[in-house]
Write a structure and sequence with these properties.
Helices cover about 5% and strands about 60% of the residues. It is mostly beta strands and about 650 residues long. The N and C termini lie far apart (about 60 Å).
Length: about 650
């Protein structure tokens, strides 16, 4: 009842204002909700786009905090800076598919398939497209709840150098250097960065007498060094090629000593100088490398793209009791699009991939699996109506064939300047190599026994809503969504061998999620913009509201842009939610601010303040895990 009331009230409010509607002024960003480029206002899919400008305006150094402020998106982070981070869309308890330029970058060895968003910074990102609802009918496995597609920077214009230097709280320093541009038919973007901080604690300070946490604790350092390149060449006559390379190496130092009556003081295990086994065990290092080559050929009415890629993601834990996980993916695809008529497009495609997971410690694991898929997409325009239909068949060596599809409609009602959208789709999540083959590997508070009989998690999603524009001053949107996912993989207790607990993953549960997303953007004058968004999510799992999914998430931003000055105050309210252990968390409001001044066309200085009022709160990862206290960062940006 509450969901219907929210949706109806927003709809009635907009309908009452129809008489004042002016010409459509929707954003014309080209997105990849289809296998061919299309304008955002033409796509049936619900899409959110984080442009480079929006990310700069927000000011945060890490992408995960920006994603968490978007309607329908929840982010679960494991405490500390750069900690393990997952995203969820519309209350579905599986990660969306994370891609770079349309290629999956999810590691095959992670339990609960996901990509760690914690280390990702926006420096070399051009935009991020968040597609909501099941997208497996186009993008295959792991797109059961949606897709996060990262589009990186490409060289443009006269060759130039960009340099950013950041200093901030907790001994934070960050350097970013990029060389980019175009020379005749060759374009290039080459960049490197270094980020170092003494960090914040992974967990709050614990009082073993009162069994409570308080702000403070030993800092846990984080260090990340990255390299990125995007090289392209136009051979002429519609033929072009592009090579992307993205890599980083990061190290987390975390204290894992537990306070107790007999152990009231813990050593600083995160200090690099501490070489004890306990300190070494809490150093988590990640080596990530991704490369992608695509060749495009454009004809008068058709286009052909061949793509091949390779990714490796190595995770090292320096400890006598655990060892590195290594993930590898290889793949290639071929897509063909054809304009049958001015209002009709079809896209055909095939792809092949191979996943490999290695665990270099007893019991050793070295397994691989192959998978392939083929799809058909049809895009049809009938006057103001845009239709999308896609169907896909995937084969996985471990569980066989899976068929998925997606149907969508977008209608522009001209008299009231309103866009209506509706979508129905199915999706699936392929069990991870860890869940399938982990033969006694360490997991949480025990060991995991793999289950090779696991079946894919399967979803059905539906959404319907509208976008209403009133000239170039006001835009309001609202949508109702419903999702169901079956065959959810959960971890259950299996046996006790000696003093060790063993767990096993099984297909056991389901979740039904439904809710309403609403947004408002208002520009009363040229220099001022107000944006608000609210998401209500009821996500019913086997134990009530799904963990780490708030009932309500409300975000807002007030932006001022005049001449050389830009300022933004943004805030977010998170209602009640529960962590994986059933602790009540959430119920907090946090405000941040960003201020920048453009000295000239080649220099800009900025100041970012996070958690202005130093709010003490528990976020999505759980009770006791630390969240950023009040902190300040200043950045100087230069262009040569």
């Amino acid at each position: 009842m509450k969901l219907k009331l929210k949706f109806i009230l927003t709809s009635v409010f907009c309908l009452a204002l129809f008489q004042n509607a002016l010409a459509v002024n929707l954003d014309t960003i080209v997105v990849s909700a289809s296998k061919v480029n299309e304008k955002i206002e033409d796509s049936p899919t619900y899409i959110q786009v984080l442009t480079k400008q929006k990310m700069e305006d927000n000011g945060n150094l890490f992408l995960s905090y920006m994603l968490n402020q978007l309607p329908g998106v929840s982010v679960e982070q494991g405490g500390g800076i750069g900690g393990e981070t997952m995203a969820f869309i519309r209350g579905i308890p599986v990660s969306p598919k994370v891609m770079m330029y349309g290629v999956s970058i999810m590691s095959p060895y992670y339990p609960f398939p996901h990509f760690n968003l914690g280390p990702i910074m926006p420096d070399n990102i051009d935009r991020i497209e968040i597609l909501q609802g099941a997208q497996s009918g186009l993008w295959g496995a792991n797109a059961a709840s949606g897709v996060i597609n990262i589009i990186t920077q490409k060289g443009k214009g006269k060759p130039h150098i960009d340099y950013n230097q950041t200093y901030g709280s907790f001994g934070t320093t960050k350097e970013y250097l990029a060389l980019s541009g175009e020379i005749k038919k060759f374009n290039f973007y080459v960049a490197g960065s270094a980020y170092d901080t003494t960090g914040i604690p992974q967990t709050y300070s614990y009082n073993y007498k009162t069994h409570t946490y308080s702000q403070g604790g030993k800092r846990d350092g984080y260090h990340k060094y990255s390299f990125y390149s995007n090289l392209g060449y136009d051979f002429g006559d519609g033929l072009s090629a592009n090579l992307i390379t993205d890599s980083y190496k990061s190290t987390n130092y975390t204290d894992i000593c537990k306070y107790s009556k007999d152990n009231p003081v813990c050593p600083n295990n995160s200090a690099p100088s501490n070489l004890t086994p306990l300190a070494q065990s809490s150093r988590h290092e990640v080596d990530y490398y991704f490369t992608k080559l695509n060749v495009d050929k454009k004809f008068e009415k058709a286009a052909l793209r061949f793509e091949t890629h390779y990714m490796q993601n190595n995770s090292y834990m320096y400890s006598p009791s655990s060892a590195p996980w290594k993930g590898r993916t290889y793949g290639a695809s071929l897509n063909f699009s054809y304009n049958v008529a001015p209002t009709t497009k079809i896209v055909l495609g095939v792809d092949y991939g191979k996943d490999r997971a290695i665990y270099d410690y007893t019991p050793q694991i070295n397994v691989s699996r192959e998978h392939a898929g083929t799809f058909l997409e049809v895009l049809q325009t009938i006057q103001n109506l845009n239709l999308q239909a896609s169907a896909r068949e995937d084969y996985y060596q471990t569980f066989g064939n899976t068929f998925t599809y997606k149907l969508g409609a977008n209608y522009y009602f001209e008299p009231s300047n309103t866009i209506f959208k509706a979508n129905w789709g199915t999706g699936f999540v392929a069990p991870s190599m860890f869940d399938l083959y982990a033969n006694g590997a360490p997991f949480r508070f025990g060991y995991l026994k793999g289950n090779p009989n696991l079946q894919p998690e399967k979803s059905k999603t539906f959404d319907i809503g509208f976008i209403q524009n009133f000239g170039d001053k006001l835009q309001i949107s609202s949508s109702f969504f419903w999702s169901k996912i079956d065959n959810l993989i959960d971890i259950k207790y299996a046996s006790l061998i000696g003093r060790s607990q063993y767990f096993i993953p099984i297909n056991i549960s389901k979740t039904i999620s439904k809710g309403v997303e609403s947004t408002l953007t208002y520009k009363p004058i040229k220099y001022l913009e107000l944006s608000l968004s609210d998401t209500y999510t009821q996500s019913d799992g086997p134990f009530g509201q799904t963990s780490n999914i708030p009932y309500n998430s409300t975000s807002g931003a007030l932006s001022f842009n005049y001449d050389r000055i830009y300022a933004q105050l943004n805030g977010q309210y998170i209602s009640t939610m529960y962590d994986n252990s059933g602790h009540q968390i959430g119920r907090y409001t946090v405000f941040n601010a960003n201020l920048s001044y453009k000295i000239n066309n080649n220099a800009k200085i900025g100041l970012y303040a996070q958690n202005i009022f130093n709010r003490f709160y528990y976020a999505s990862w759980g009770y006791g895990y630390a969240t950023p206290p009040r902190s300040f960062y200043t950045t100087l940006s230069l262009k040569f």
